[in-house]
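just leaving the lab so this will be short. below you get a single protein, a line of residues and a line of whole numbers that encode the local backbone shape. id like you to explain what the token line says about the fold, in plain words if possible. thanks a lot i owe you, the record is right below:

…
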Amino acid sequence: MQMFRLLAISWTLGILIACFIPGQLVEPIVFEWTDKIAHFVLFAGFSGFWLAAFPGNRSFRMVLGAGILLALLTEAGQYLLPIGRSAEWLDLLADGLGLLAGYGFDRWLALPVTTR
């Protein structure tokens, strides 16, 4: 459990760093859907690592709530801070879908292995 908590914290810090890198450093490597794919992957990892760190029936609601709050805060920060980044509704959608995908992956990993 301790390892998953460290991974979850590190992943969350990575999201914050990735979302607040100044735009002039990010824009040359971003093409049409790269940004949305990155948001999806980052937030899938967020929910996957936090769910692994705190397994249980009520964990998903807490992780989903924290993930949505993080998504809103990062988009608001990109909009408000003078870092040359833009806030987009499609980024929030990609974040939300990523949170759900991380949950689905966590549930898939939790399925018992059956032998035939």
Notes: Residues 1 and 75 are 30 Å apart (CA to CA).
